[in-house]
């Protein structure tokens, strides 16, 4: 599968995820092992009625989706993946009314696991609202040339 | 000796306090989560719906839905703990419960989700346990299951910043 075919497949798959559609997510960028996905502010996603701030769970969903897209776009990973674990640290509340943008990078792939890190921000891109680290499955059912002999 | 309160008064106070806590959060309604109560014990229920899917080929529940469900369960458990003190300590009656009198919700500091097996296209349940709750910080563990209570499909641990009291 060449680069273009993979990108097309990942785009198609990501845009078809029902819950990502429910949260109105948009795939903004897709590279070789990295992805940018954003989500609009919506009063239905609010978690704190006192401040109007978006629920952490909606941010988790955005970061999980972006992490998954980063894994699938990686040349050494299979185009099917599932989250094994995801840790999110919340730096500050997202400003109500602003779009949330998440950038994820798949920084290492073994023959069974893909590791990602992700950052989410609102209009102030210098000041993250959350960061995430995660492990995803990367089980292709066959040993690829690049990963043969690699640990794990 | 003081007579115990009539059971319906106790139930009404607790049920309306819980409803007020949950109904104020739009995202809980968006996801369709509701809570069952037995005394002070809460069980979160996530009814399955096609919009919750993350992998249509299987189909499996979206990892972000699972994370959301677990985080909602944790925050409501903490909020309920604060609320319980207010309503059972004699401070608040059912009629007094309003947006102004309710405790503010805790804020998530970090949240780590462990995905144990894929979420099947059916209802899910979760219970949270507050392992430590101080004046400023709380640590919560939460478990989610579907058909069998003993077969979790996900668990999470999170740290939360506790709200300052309403009155200063």
TrEMBL record, chain A:
Keywords for this protein: Hydrolase
InterPro entries reported in the protein's UniProt record: HotDog_dom_sf, PAAI_dom, Thioestr_dom
A Pfam family the protein falls into: 4HBT
Domain Thioesterase: 52-126
Transmembrane segments: none
Molecular function GO terms recorded: 1,4-dihydroxy-2-naphthoyl-CoA thioesterase activity
SUPFAM superfamilies, per database record: Thioesterase/thiol ester dehydrase-isomerase (SSF54637)
Keyword RNA-binding appears in the UniProt entry: no
Gene Ontology annotations for the cellular component aspect, listed alphabetically: cytosol
PANTHER family registered for this protein in UniProt: 1,4-DIHYDROXY-2-NAPHTHOYL-COA THIOESTERASE 1, BLR7284 PROTEIN
Protein known as: Hotdog fold thioesterase
Species this chain originates from: Maritimibacter harenae
Automatic annotation (TrEMBL), chain B:
Pfam families from the UniProt entry: 4HBT (PF03061)
Single GO term (MF): thiolester hydrolase activity
InterPro entries from the UniProt entry: HotDog_dom_sf, Thioestr_dom
Residue runs in coiled coils: none
Signal peptide residue numbers: none
Occurrences of domain Thioesterase (ranges): 61-149
Protein name: PaaI family thioesterase
